[in-house]
Design brief:
The protein has 145 residues and is α/β, with parallel strands linked by helices. It contains 5 helices and 5 strands; from the N terminus they run αβαβαβαβαβ.
């Protein structure tokens, strides 16, 4: 590639950074967020899930990659007995939101895999998952407080 071609490639890369575009021309930036949820009441769960829904509404669900990491006293949110949140959680998961429960929390509160909604994923440790996602470029959001 000659000097002129190098300069054009550099300019195109800079434009992609400035406009928030990457990949094929015209494709919007993927917004990535990891939500840290430890709240222990349905009202706080509702507030936390509204944050996820609002993010997806503003940017468009196809432009958002999101994960809700649940740990501590928030674990009942993801249990099958939580029929009030069943449909809402299923909708989020079906839309691409990862719902993850900490296995350390499961041990601490004697939560079995069978007691969880089938679409719930588990992670080794909430704090480790939050760090991994931040290192991967996800924005960290503490919700439900």
């Amino acid at each position: 590639m000659d000097r002129r071609g190098s300069l054009l490639a550099l300019a195109a890369g800079a434009l992609a950074v400035v406009t928030g575009r990457r990949g094929e021309a015209g494709s919007p930036k993927k917004h990535r967020a990891v939500f840290d949820l430890t709240a222990d009441t349905p009202e706080r769960w509702d507030a936390a899930l509204r944050n996820v829904e609002n993010l997806r509404q503003v940017f468009g669900p196809e432009n958002v990659e999101a994960e809700v990491v649940v740990h501590g006293k928030a674990y009942p949110l993801l249990q099958k007995t939580n029929t009030a949140m069943d449909e809402r959680l299923r909708g989020l998961q079906a839309g691409g939101v990862k719902l993850a429960l900490c296995r350390n929390t499961m041990k601490r509160f004697n939560v079995t895999r069978e007691s969880l909604f089938p679409f719930v994923e588990t992670v080794d440790a909430a704090v480790a998952e939050l760090v991994r996602q931040q290192e991967a470029g996800f924005a960290y959001l503490k919700v439900g407080v």
